[in-house]
Automatic annotation (TrEMBL):
The keyword Nucleotide-binding does not apply. Keywords: Metal-binding, Zinc, Zinc-finger. The keyword Metal-binding applies. Residues 7-20 have a biased composition (Polar residues). It comes from the Bacteria. This is SWIM zinc finger-containing protein. Residues 502-543 form the SWIM-type domain. It comes from Chamaesiphon minutus (strain ATCC 27169 / PCC 6605). One of its GO terms (molecular function) is zinc ion binding. InterPro entries: Znf_SWIM. Residues 1-20 are annotated as: Disordered.
Length: 549
């Protein structure tokens, strides 16, 4: 999926002894969006924008070790041993030496011929990382100007972490003219280095440059055209995390020192085997407790109490992504945690007084949930006709942001209808749910509409599984957990005069370790090509039941 941007230049930061000017170059192909103001809370903004940068460059996917040098060494040792054994006969030894010399010469020539290529490749990637690190970024951050705040959004390279920085107008002083809307801004690695120079004794002017929307005249610098080809999974993951923010969640507050303690454990220890999860133990009126597996190390958050109605026990994975929050600890007032359930996405909202930072984490660092159909946040929504959906979205556009209850009351519509319409626009990338203020906001992720039919499912089996859920033909017959913590599911799917009997086993790391189904596809392929649509539907039905609970 290709995205095209046109910037009137590069974003830049100019600095002198007492003043810093930050000017972001917007995408001029989108609706004119601009803002100008002088920072009042310099340090908090510096730390928050730096944490956002950590999300942009985050990539915790497994990187295999380069064993090329070892294999070359092993090959040389084998040759040496071979020569030593061959010395038993002088004639053979002499012949081997001749062949060895000939092979060495051939390898030398081959190495000389290829060295230029490999050196150029190495220099190219070294240059990208050291000099032009922007080329490593997947997508420039999205900035949105609203009547009450300005907020940035970004998504990590490994498709598992989402970051949102919201800055209310109280963060600024001397706010000038602004135009509400959403645009991409030119973002470079050099900007990150300049952000670190923000100080309290220097006035800092923040600007989304409006001059780029003017008419270009002769002699001016041409616009910088940027084309980025993104995989569908990246865009789909971004939309899923956005949709997850509007789902019911278990919420509680953590003191900044509690977040520090969690990060401290992760810094001091490295797991060598699974399970690699954090288990939240929540009991009404008691301090929040967190157990780190596989060490079973318990951290008691004495400053943070759970005020829910019933006890909960929720496990989350991909915990090392929490280290992104480290920079925010000194300037944060509190952290609000939103957990959707075991193995489901989670959100951490840092209260930085007039700033808020939201870190959204998918259920798994490698984003297996989106790829394997374990949890589909773009599942079928309440049926709302197109005219009603357009009416709801037009109503939201009038004020740019509004709670579902207020919008339903103003438009004289049922709350479920409004939520269904807003959910559809969230999944289409045209709206977003603000966890901090509990409102929906207009936010056009792209200039052109996204191909939702293409992004909604990773494959045909997920589409078929979703159809089973929609038609309510999936029944979970049994659900049990054994002594090893493995979840055993068995179900029945009756569809078009056919009856299927899928079963699944899910381990403590929420991995599908065993499954079976009576359908022909599974009998032919087993799990070598992934689970069939009936096994996917069984798992989705079980998870939806957990969410409703």
């Amino acid at each position: 999926m290709e995205f095209n941007y046109s910037y009137p230049g590069n974003s830049s930061i100019s600095s002198n002894g007492d003043r810093t000017n930050m000017s972001f170059a917007p995408d001029v192909t989108r609706t004119p969006t601009y803002f100008r103001g002088e920072l009042r809370q310099n340090i908090a903004f510096r730390e928050a924008i730096s944490a956002l940068h950590d999300v942009v460059v985050s990539d915790l996917r497994f990187q295999p070790k380069d064993k090329t040098a070892y294999k070359e060494w092993a090959a040389q040792r084998n040759e040496i041993d071979w020569q030593l054994i061959a010395t038993q006969r002088q004639t053979v030894t002499d012949r081997l030496r001749e062949l060895d010399a000939e092979m060495s010469e051939l390898r030398r020539r081959s190495s000389e011929r290829s060295s230029g290529y490999y050196k150029s490749v190495r220099r190219y990637f070294d240059y990208l990382y050291q000099k032009d690190r922007d080329a490593w970024f997947v997508l420039d951050p999205v900035i949105t100007v609203h009547p009450d705040e300005v907020f940035f959004e970004c998504f990590s390279q490994d498709e598992s972490s989402y970051g949102r920085l919201g800055a209310s107008y109280e963060v600024f002083k001397n706010v000038g003219d602004f135009a509400c809307g959403t645009t991409n801004v030119d973002y470079s690695a050099a900007l990150y280095d300049e952000f670190q120079k923000i100080r309290t004794y220097k006035s800092t002017v923040f600007e989304v440059d409006p001059s780029g929307f003017g008419v270009q005249t002769a002699g001016e610098v041409a616009y910088k055209e940027v084309k980025i080809d993104l995989p569908d999974t990246w865009v789909r993951g971004f939309l899923q995390v956005n949709s997850a923010m509007s789902l019911p969640a278990i919420s509680f507050d953590l003191h900044p020192m509690d977040i520090y303690n969690l990060c401290f454990v992760l810094r001091r220890r490295k797991e060598k085997h699974g399970p690699r999860s954090m288990k939240y133990i929540l009991k009404p009126g008691e301090p929040v407790r967190v157990i780190f597996e596989p060490w079973n190390l318990e951290v008691v958050c004495d400053r943070s109490f759970y005020h829910g109605n019933k006890p909960e026990e929720i496990r989350v994975w991909g915990r090392r992504r929490l280290l992104i929050l480290e920079r925010l600890i000194p300037v944060a007032k509190k952290f609000t945690v939103h957990l959707l359930g075991t193995g489901l996405p989670s959100f951490y909202v840092a209260d930085l007084h007039d700033l808020s930072f939201t870190l959204g984490l998918s259920g798994w660092t490698a984003n297996d949930w989106a790829k394997a159909g374990n949890f589909d946040l773009m599942a079928p929504r309440d049926t709302v006709d197109d005219w009603t959906k357009q009416k709801v979205f037009a109503g939201l556009q009038e004020n740019w942001l509004e709670s579902p209850d207020d919008l339903a009351k103003r438009l004289k519509l049922d709350r479920s209808v409004v939520l269904g319409a807003l959910s559809a626009y969230t999944q289409a990338g045209r709206a977003i749910y603000d966890l901090n203020k509990q409102v929906y906001r207009v936010r056009e992720l792209t200039q052109e509409p996204l191909p939702i039919d293409r992004l909604r499912f990773a494959n045909d089996r997920e589409s078929a599984a979703s159809e089973f859920i929609t038609n309510k033909v999936v029944k979970v017959d049994s659900s049990s957990v054994d002594t090893n913590g493995t979840l055993h599911l068995a179900g029945t799917i009756k569809y078009r005069s056919q009856t299927y009997k899928p079963i699944a086993e899910i381990d403590r790391d929420e991995r599908l370790v065993a499954a079976n189904c009576t359908c022909n596809w599974h009998q032919q392929n087993k799990l070598f090509k992934g689970p069939c649509e009936h096994i996917l539907a069984l798992r989705m039905q079980h998870q939806q039941a957990l969410v409703r609970l």
